[in-house]
Amino acid sequence: MRESLCHSNLVKRDAVLVNGMYLNGPTLDIKTTYKFVEDAVSLILDEAVRKGTDILEKVCEWQPPEKLKEILDLELREGGEPHSKILKRCQDVIRYSVKTGHPHFFNQLYAGMDPYSLVGRFIIETTNPSLYTYEVAPVFVLTEDAVLRKMMEFVGWQEEGDGIFSPGGSISNMYAVNVARYHRCPDIKEQGLSAVPRLVLFTSQECHYSVTKAAAFLGIGTKNVYAVSSDERGKMIPAELEKQVLRAKAEGACPFMVNATSGTTVLGAFDPLDEIANICQTHNLWLHVDACWGGAALLSRRHRHLLKGIQRANSVAWNPHKMLTAGLQCCAFMVRDKTGLLQRCHSARASYLFQQDKFYDMNYDTGDKSIQCSRKPDSFKFWLLWKAVGTYGLEERVNKAIALARYLAVEIQRREGFRLLMEPEYANVCFWYIPPSLRKMPESKEFWEKIHNVAPLIKERMMKKGSMMIGYQPHGGRANFFRQIVISPQLGRADMDFVLDEIDKLGKDL
Amino acid sequence: MRESLCHSNLVKRDAVLVNGMYLNGPTLDIKTTYKFVEDAVSLILDEAVRKGTDILEKVCEWQPPEKLKEILDLELREGGEPHSKILKRCQDVIRYSVKTGHPHFFNQLYAGMDPYSLVGRFIIETTNPSLYTYEVAPVFVLTEDAVLRKMMEFVGWQEEGDGIFSPGGSISNMYAVNVARYHRCPDIKEQGLSAVPRLVLFTSQECHYSVTKAAAFLGIGTKNVYAVSSDERGKMIPAELEKQVLRAKAEGACPFMVNATSGTTVLGAFDPLDEIANICQTHNLWLHVDACWGGAALLSRRHRHLLKGIQRANSVAWNPHKMLTAGLQCCAFMVRDKTGLLQRCHSARASYLFQQDKFYDMNYDTGDKSIQCSRKPDSFKFWLLWKAVGTYGLEERVNKAIALARYLAVEIQRREGFRLLMEPEYANVCFWYIPPSLRKMPESKEFWEKIHNVAPLIKERMMKKGSMMIGYQPHGGRANFFRQIVISPQLGRADMDFVLDEIDKLGKDL
Description:
A 7-stranded mixed sheet of chain A has the order 4-10-9-8-7-5-6, with helices on both faces. Chain A is α/β, with parallel strands linked by helices. Helix content of chain A is 40%, strand content 13%. Chains A, B: Homodimer.
């Protein structure tokens, strides 16, 4: 091979000058910088991977914005910098970044680090492919298809289904809204919404905020998202859904879609899919299930009942970058339809990219299903992870995370000064910390006003110490409470105990 | 630090059993797999970086889909696989992937590999941040701001401007459409499009297909995208734009936006921005400039005249992952407005994420400007690259690419059997190859039908040989022609000669 590609014209010739540029040599040869890349990667593995996941190291090294600006020297200048200085910058960047793979990062739904998906990510970054055509991304087109088929099998679709990975659950939910309305009225694609009746979609008050963003972005309007009440556990109340559908019909609007959530962001609640599917069937509504967070439970024989009925959905969003630690982003959007609805809804048939006279089967050029042009092969890192640990390995991680969440809930109930919002069904554990000074106080308005200030103060202290990160929020009428997210496969029960001990230590003087 | 975080409760205790799971140890400790990560990274650097950019290695190792499926063994199974097998899979994946960083990959607008942005990408993947809040992404929030400010300076906005990075130029163009209509009629966000008159936007027939996709996705409708004719070089004709605007007004529709393109996808054409801006001013239309591909010319004192007038745009899309080799994706969307339009247009004010009682300046929580929730810090890799080579280094790369494109054009005109479509202004070189058998033929319909088949056949041969990759397409009434994209900083004039020699070698028997 080396010889056949080594043509005589690669031999250096006399210099050619065009526009004042000498064109003979390269401006940069990656090989001459190979040593720099090796040094940087070695530093990254040590600082961000090894130390970044070490329980004895800090989760974050807090600096306020103005101070951090000075440290980082953000200004971009005319001249470049030597390798030694760039390496120092890499070190600083890692140092002052939050270690989201650290076992004690409980702040978000993408906590934890997996070595296999990490390696998959390095492969993606070094091969730098775009997923639109088989021609430029042969391996990644095929792995996306394999991952989607397997995920759809767990959704419960056997011979059915189509899908695509998107850059975020929010965008997956947008896909759902667009496919649902196109399915109802294909003319919308060409004619737009100004030519059709007012469309209305339904979702619970506990749903992710991206449903509202989708309605705004897609021209439906946020007021045409009808919020359905949830019960005290955060699950959509089917009777309330039916009421809202009837209300929309009475108004002369056109109800077209229900968004059900499997694993809400704050409480980790699962909407009752079977009952919602019945209502959708009666009223001919598209059922989309936002299982971005809760979809992982499908892999667990013990917990998949949480999504009972999901196979009746018309579309499903499921993010393996959350509970399954595939790394940001890794977001599947899947439709039950297998007649090419996804492609018809989004295609633009660009002739410069999707040429119809290629020498291979052009059904493998899947890019026209997408609203993107260039698209990263996010599914690949999940494919490699799945290959490495198998379905059973993924199942074990899900079971372990939920078991740890339950252990934490029991500990919260057992300990003085902690109060659980509700028994967790999934991996969100919501609770208040009550400092000693408030433990004897009656539960008045004043009590809850004081409690409301506790979580922000403890959060500030834990970040400045760097010992852990855990989220808090108000919710409905409730005062600020902690929301612990349990994901990382590095966690054991001692880490759950640590969280409670640490909160008590940080907040007992409040 | 190590001591202060090393609490006694991390000491192993008796096993706890919950839901049939023992909770004491971790399921997986990344440290125990550290050796695997090191081995994999070493393999990736060698195979994908060192060999992947070696001019003496193949650009691609072609396999047809069915064959590649067998080789890769795509099926995901219940059991996992040992490290040795996963390493072998990594090797296969790299082997059969297209080397888009190879100097002889001329197929797409993101060719080439830069060592500094590559290192930035490794840092992003190992720290795995999401950009919505300062709390979880302090460094990356600040570097995004620094990069946007610098890019806006090159657009020509001094004290003005706001922006965000998005996962793709297509999505940036969608942002533009949404902000433009919101600016025209803020009620749309809440009320939706069914309550407003028919909106119409204008773009040249040469624009990227994402403008049409945006109109469909955002509920405007593809028929409300009025195509404006271009001249023979692919530039929008201002008089034709004005005609279309008057047509829409005469129809009683509501014209709201013009999309101008700086660097069209196929021909690399630049629309005349100043003349278009005049028309927008007259008719009160939002001017968006899709400079995803051509924006890089702003960094070149020699070539920035191509975008003369861009500072008059209301919004600009510019992808540093194209000409500036920042790696997929790296896409800035910028608006000239500095009154918070971007935020008002997209915000949903999720209280669990954008809490208003945080202990730092919450203006640094920029996530509510976005249509995404989780968002990768794509700007960071470009920041690191810019730090390493400086503005002058970036400028040199742009100048060199354009100079090489011109050299190639001269060679095409000099050589028998090659015909240039037009003199390049930028880094797209479009040309036909005419095999010896057709060189004497009169330029009849039959001649062009035969020419139409030449590029696909040569493309097939070059891919099966693996010697290079270069795109082709039909365009308007023109028969299939090659489109060579010149980006990689590894290129010299010998590589340009190589392309022509190789095409001749592959096609001379046709």
